[in-house]
Structures
1.
Amino acid sequence: MKANLNVLFDAQGPRGRRLTLIFNVVGLLLAAAVIWWLLATLADRGQLSWSRWSFAFTANAWENFYLPGLVSTLKAALVSIVTSVAFGLLFGMGRLAPNALVRAVCTVIVEFFRAVPVLLMMIFFWLWIGFLDVVPPSDLPFLAVVLGLTFYNGSVIAELVRSGVHQLPKGQSEAGLAVGLTHGQVLRSIQLPQALVAMLPSMLSQFVVILKDTALGIIITYPELLDSARRLGSANSMLQSLLIAAVVFIVINFVLTSAANWLSGYLSSRTSGRTKIPVGPGVGAPEKAA
Amino acid sequence: MSFLDRYASVLSQYDVLGAFWVNIQLTFWAAIGSFVLGCLLALMRISPIASLRGFGATYVQLLRNTPLTILMFIAVLGVWTQLQIKLSGDFQQNFFNFAVVALSLYHAAFVCEAIRSGVNTVPVGQAEAARAIGLSFLPSARLIIFPQALRGSITPLGNTLIALTKNTTVATAASVAEASGLMKTMIEFNSDIVIAIFLTFAMCFVVIVIPMGLITTWASRKWAVKR
């Protein structure tokens, strides 16, 4: 924020400050009007009365709905994070391999999975593995969620690994080669450790994407947080129950996003790679960290 | 019956192109909606007015940390079913409109961030030079900063559009009849050619999305501000 402030306007004089103050008040009034309008619409339809919210603040709601849902969400997210990172490292290194065939195969796989919507993959794995009948039906949605998230986010991380290595100063690999290391040794012991540190913030923001996308699991009957909120809401009050689930997601993701931003600043003095986080939306952004 | 005959007969039973047409329409309207809202938010976030900056920042934080799926459910189960707010008299059109609104609200946060990151690519010297020749905030923003910032934000904007295209599949959560829902139906009734059906839908997305990425890269190079 501070950086653009300097770009766009100068330190203001008395007239500028007066104008800013006036607009500030107008802006506050506008924001207040928007919020008031939202609340008034809700109140008009009787949505703000305590009886419509009280169900969510009982032990039953949390013990039997929100917390088990959150546990499933976190379980799917954590497993997917581990598998995505493994997939990403493997294929990221594959895309940097000296062998042209290996490179080509890895490129096709990574580009394919980045272009296909996560939801499409989840539905496919869910039905396909179901027909194959190799896992118990109760594990099926979980497995499909993890596989869908792994192939997509793993490919994004592979891209991060590749661009992370490319953004290192050339002297790093040249120095490695000069002391007699092979191409693979340079990649593993010189480039990857530095690239990984540099890409840590982007990786964290990719974890936010993974956590958000676990909510797609509701479509393939995975009993995650959104699904518990929907079941609880259908017995009580839907809108309120969904809003509370949204708040839980926002809080967790906000912490992760803030950590990523802090880390980005903290690490920038500790690696020769670039730690900047690429801008990109949740479900399905090809985060080209170029 | 050979595999190819079977595949062809299944494809002819369903309107695959029609389903993708719905995704493309969702993309088109949500792209317009999110671009307009995102530009407004970006203007707020870079203005000298603290209250507008706070409002824009809060919006971005809230929306980009909420799963799109929840927004779809809030729109259809909360706003439509519970609050009885309709966006269209037509039953199908109503779901479509809700999906467009949810997609626009969600992606506006990313459009805002994309434009803001474009503004960050403009060197301070440009703004200083603008002020030095006597331009005030709005003229310098309009004539000097924004033309360069927009060119710098082509890549993140293109990535947002690609993500939006893929995210239109989530509209199935808002009961819109689109590609992912059709794929599910087709697989359920034709379990013998699951992989072929999946690859068909996946390749359709590849064919839409990869050219978008190539155009984005080409455009960002063509219009890059040489420094």
2.
Amino acid sequence: MSMKLVRQALRGERPPPRMWRAHELRERYDAVIIGGGAHGLCCAYYLAEEHGITDVAVLEKRYIGAGGSGRNTAIVRSNYLTPEGVRFYDASLKLYERMAGELDINVMLSQRGHLTLAHNDGSLRTMRRRAEVNRLQGVESRVIFPEEIERLCPHLDVSDHPRYPILGALYHPRGGIMRHDAVVWGYAHQADARGVHIHQLTEVTGIAVEGWRVTGVETNRGNIKTGTVLNATAGWCSTTAAMAGVKLPVTTSPLQACVSEPLKPFLDVVIVSGSLHVYVSQSDRGELVMGASVDPFPSYSSRGSLSFAESLAGHIVELMPALQHVRLMRQWAGLCDMTPDYSPIMGFTPVEGFYVDVGWGTYGFKASPISGKMLAECIATQRTPDLIAPFRLSRFSEFDLVGEKGAASVAN
Amino acid sequence: MLILNCPNCGERNVSEFRNGGEYRPRPACPREKDDLQWAEYVYLRSNVSGVQKEWWYHRAGCGLWFLAERHTKTNEITATYRWRPAAASSEEERKADG
Amino acid sequence: MAERLPPRTGEVIDREEELRFQFDGEDYLAFSGDTIASALAATGVRVFSRSFKYHRPRGLLCCAGHCPNCLVQVGEEPNVRACRRRVEAGMRVEPQNVTPTLKRDWLAPVMRALSPFMSVGFYYKTLYRPSWVWKLGEPLLRAATGLGKVSVPKIPSEGFDKQYLRGDVVVVGAGPAGMSATLSAAGQGASVLLLDENGQLGGHLRTTGDTQQRLPSLLEKVRAAGNIRVFTETTVTGWFDHSWLAAVRGHRLYKIRAGAVVLASGALERPLLFENNDLPGVMLGSAAQRLLRLHSVKPGQRAVVMTANDDGWEVAADLRAAGVEVVAMADERERAASSSARVDALSADVPVFWRHTVAAAHGGSAVQAATIVPLDGDGDTQAPRHRQDCDLLLVSVGWTPNTGLAYQAGVRFGFDEKRAELTARDMPENFAIAGRAAGTHLLEHELAEGALAGRSMAAAAGRGDAPAAAQWTQVQEEKAAEPARSAPWVSVAGAGKRFLCYCEDVTEKDLYTAVAEGYDSIELLKRYSTISMGPCQGKMCSMNAVHLCARANAASVDETGSTKSRPPLQPISLGALAGQNMEPVRVTPVHDWHLERGAKMMVAGLWLRPERYGDPAGEVRAVRERVGVIDVSTLGKYKLTGPSVPDILEKIYINRWRKLAVGRVRYGAMCNTEGIVMDDGVTARVGEQEWYMTTTSGGAGSVNEWMQWWMQSGWGEGVQLLNRTDDFAAVNLAGPQARALLQKLTGLQLGNDQFPYMHARSGAVAGVPCRLLRIGFTGELSYELHCPSSYGRHLWERLLAAGEQFGILPFGVEAQRVLRLEKGHLIIGQDTDALSNPIAAELSWAVKLDKEDFLGQRSLIRVTERGVRQRLVGFTVPGVSVAPEEGLQIVALGSNGKRPEIIGWVSSCRFSPTLNEVIGLCWLPSEIAETDGAEFNIWRDERPLAARVHHGAVYDPEGARLRS
């Protein structure tokens, strides 16, 4: 029994401590972070914790974690295709592995194992390529075949009856799921404890730039003077960057997800099928958390569609016929900022003092801790850390893209 | 399910169509662009939150590529029409070219 | 069936037919028409399930399919709403979340003891220090979580399907307002679909008041109209863009395009928060009425009725009429809104507590008593407290309009503080709400509003005229004059557990704690406390949660807002959403022959192709030594005509086309704007203005769309592009004996002079009109024959018959891969990926940068300026017989203990039976790739494997055989 719960039980009617506080908006901050999701809050935390920069405001249009941080399907993994991708996401996973103790909140990291199914020889080849790259980077990952797949997940139909039979899978034991909201709350709590101001319901309406240098931020609650602004938004990264006069290689599309009614746990591993555009895991609440690839056309609308649910259900039932009676309970959408090379954009922009942590497509949650940490380092040291150098904005004008697009159309 | 008005076939479910992205006229003389300008054409996008002029292809129908004006927040489609050479000499083209 | 009443008018059960079923291991009897819940309630069952967190006993609460209390397992189907599912003979029903039995759940006392430590979000605050504790704790948490079960891993599909429907006006809900709307819309000439989740039309006309007299005439009119289609037991689960509705009935999903929608889905009765408000026996008043009127089941013997509107008095009257003793009435109001004989009669012999509320229910596994307390003007309670014994505590304190569908359609709601009701605004022009869903409760008003809504929506769908605005004004005024039906207070002060959310066992105290911790907006509150996240999706708790959140923040309900309504409105099975498996399969005209011959088929995009017929090495040898034939009907095939074909080809492909003579064939590769290789294939000029183009199988569709795009936006003048992929079958005949074989079947001159390599001809083969391309992907003398699809199998069989004397073998994709690898030919998509340009991919010989303009040119100019870091190059692995697997990495070995560094990867690799050597294609740093014979290391099984760069084809590098 944790002392926290004992104290809470004994406290009776007295109010519990607040996780974060509300503040008046100051006229100036050393740094302003736009976007109160896991990325922005994490960067604020590391600015304060590792670089002693505490005069920081995190501006959130709605409530913290309202965007992608609270809408993703909370899968974590590091079995990427490129060496630079594997290095980066594995550093992230390692931070996740010690996050609960560090942030003093149970983020319920559940490393249940992650299976990416292959239904044709082409994807089997890609799985092997990933497994090899992973292992050479020290990340456990291997290609397994139907017999072992069935052992890990007896509900999968590994026969040759399905339209797209399962030929093999990439197995990544350290992959898993966690509680995404807790990550947001943990960073918010620790950033707040270090003096960071978290401003909810604070919408940025403009970014002041003078001669290619950021000088401030305009919000619905007043203007802020600052020389450092980080765009850590998802879904609005292009519009936010446009306020500073920066154009991005980003297209925004909804990504839908859904959960089933709660069931007694039966699904131990995370199942992903790139060819069938589905992924499914079972949370600690017993719900199946399911998702697909991004919507077929770009949009800022987060309205769910029936065709998403139909095609998702079709593929899930084909993979696991026993789920035909399971009921879909709630569906939603989040916005994904897709880049041409399926990799994020981090670091400097042509505007001095204006940094980006954007273009997170469908993989933003997996990278929350490391991207926040790296952006904090970038802002504090004025140098691009090696780990994120491949993801710099200038790679596009240098025609030096990241090769992650080959991995799969469903990157979860 | 959105309904899209194909200039050939009329109103059809959006599932019959493929989206072709923002309308961005190709520079008439790509060779004359420097690397930065060319990268901008190839990679950068306006990605507006508002009315976007964009391409659609009637994949499960007549095979027409046409243009639509769609509000990217509400998905309201205010116009669909065929591409015409006239559009190529519009202000927009010159801007994209400049 | 102790609680079953004698036959009553309006009941929906058939007493002639008895059905036997099981619940919790015991046998029960039901009448046909009974729901699982009504049948069990009729025998006196009170406890239906154990709650999610505390394992508290739970009984019937809403009897309308909304709350989580009666969720049961039926066979392999989890989370079935017992109050909606009709009993079928032999049904096996099990209670859910019981450890181990419904009656004796040992987790219940454990959870009760632990509950002080299990406040809201407790799991965020424990089991993570030290980190290994979570490894033990999580399995415990998972063991306790969840409701129903998916126990059998493999079950056969139960035949789900889908149907499309269309209606000018779709009316959701067949109560009085819905039926009235239906009739008025139909009267305007609109086609109307009337959908209702119940088994019979009528809505609350069947369960409340003296209004059943109105029902027969409404039913008769609906039945008589020709343009009304009625769907009962059909639940609408969502509104999507452009009035696209989803509805489900059993195993069938309806997808409905509506011209306009009338939402007449009624209202949900609102629970009240008091101590132990979750005890079995505490029910909503409307739930008791459903049991009584539809199933003739007495919900209890001695009832306390708690109300804040006249509906509660109706409930009490119904109970008395059914022989239930009403032992007390508590009404939050000073007096009834309207005087009626029923109120008078009840007041005469039942103790009535005006301006009182219920503060607590008492009991173990079911309610045994209620505490009734006076209420002051601020919603606070005062002494004295009255304790009243009872076995039934009915709550009728207000209604929440069932408007999730309206929310999804874009309607927004404000909160009328005076009436404690939601009011709609921002109504789209083809959406209307009527009846209780619109806050209209008096029958005459409902009928009038329904009629107006029906007529308006018919007009919105283009049928008839819209009613005058004044008529709407009148309806609104009448509605505003109705007495308020919702109590302003959702809970009163008190001790003990007052459940806000039944699905997740969230109490009022939990909510206040969460707000105090900082989760103070309704969305944060929802995520932290999980209110409204369970099976009822907020139907029972959302409204109350917003009230409490507003109170905790000293804000108004409007400022607090509500959580969004997201589809589905009612949970819907994956099977129904999936329907039949409609995944298309593409097969070639020769497909059946392949199967008959026992080919092992493989998935290639949408196609099925023979991977092999027997031993692929034997198939390779047949091609190299004799002759083989492969079905290549999956290739993309296009006819291009017009004077400007060379212009478009010059733009699309990286190489030149203008000077290609009639009768010649040329290989071409194309790039996208980024300069990434997209596709390749051969194209023949078959006439002065006619060209025949082929693409890869995978690229067939996308190349067509790509070319059409450019052609339809300025480059299409003087060109016509026709996709003939499905019109033609194609086979490739390859091997030294190919000419001799083919000559048996055609009169065409096949000599090397008459029909040389990279030429095209047309003529009859085996009596079939064919286009012949002499090309050589396999590296042998070979002819690709394209003929109309309908002749494909005939041609194939004739080739094999004629080839028998030459020892012909059909060969599959696997043999073809070996053959092409021996020639060093790349496969786009296997040897290239999303970053591969043709210069790096060994295609620089084809890139003509000095052409005027082609797609990818500008990007490729940059590539040549900067040079390429990696190149695709051939290799051999001397001294091994097992080919390294494709996807293996090429490494630079690190010095002592350092991890090897990745410098490339193997994209293709096979053992060549022709050369008795392992060969392949790989990506290597340019400086290594440039040197023929350079050694490098493939990382296999955690060890380096030496390989050697090989420039050019390993087999017949001069290309003599394919020109022979």
